[in-house]
Amino acid sequence: MKKGILVCLGGTGLKNIGDYVQSIAARQFAGDDAVFVERERLASYEGDDVKCVMNAWFMFHPEQFPPSPRIKPLFTSFHVQPLRESKFFTERTIAYLKAHEPIGCRSTDAVAMMERHGIRAYFSSCLTLTLGQTYRHVESDSPPVFVDPYFRRFGKKEVWGIPFKMLARLPYLLRHFKSVSVLAEKFRVFREFPRIRFAPVRWHYAAEFHRAYCATFGERLLLEAEYVSHRVPKSVYSTNESLMELADKMLRRYERAPFVVTSKLHCSLPCLAMGTPLWFVHHADFENGRFGGNIDFLNVLEFGDDGRVQPIESGSIVPPVRRDHVPFAERLAAQCRNFMEEGAQ
Asked: How far apart are CA 338 and CA 147, in angstroms?
């Protein structure tokens, strides 16, 4: 039986590279010659019999679950998006998951979801916590990295309110014109932000970000920092191989960062695993279902109702390296290693 890893190539537009960070985590145990198994076509998979860890977000096409009988699954770091719960948990899916109990879930929220459907489950956390086996933080002269940091942006369907919000922020933009202009250029990487391709909107975002983060991190650091987005253009990265290579490149960048600031789990947990100091910026309106259990591992800065990130209480801009996750990482690694080696000659 061959070894596989889940991938999700997706369609056109932008791709969340976090899916391929998950794939790299699984490849540590499946090997470099692992078979790519498309997450959104699990039921129609017709390749060789394959072992595969189900460490992923499920899923855009719930009709493609349960997987093909050709796939032998290990259910750990499994996550179902709350908005898809009603479509995902069919009688057939519930019976399939019960046959593979207990289900290791990426968050405590997912555990509760499983239990609502009578499925035994436990909090495994995320397989990306094992990435410390491959990536390790190293000292360097590189600048800090901001990866998809949260701040106030326009809604995707918002139109009429945009001019008024931009006008309200105009005095701040003009007061910090030089700094905002530097940030606006760096913000070109954030293709996901609504209407950012328009220069006035990009400048507004830069001013909003500067206002939110300047008091906490200082203007000089914001201007020197590198900015990274986990949403990348499919027109440039159109194959599984290119996306795996890009995910590896991003992880190597986080290895060298003196610290990282992010609002993305698929940046936070890998940094935690490799020992890179990390600040996680959290907002109360974040989607429920993703953070339960995992947020307890992180150095958290709350984004306040005033539109600013809270001050750093410790006084040190470089956060401590946490170790709370280590037992979960060790359990995940042992579980996946045993699964892949089981029955090997």
From this structure: 34
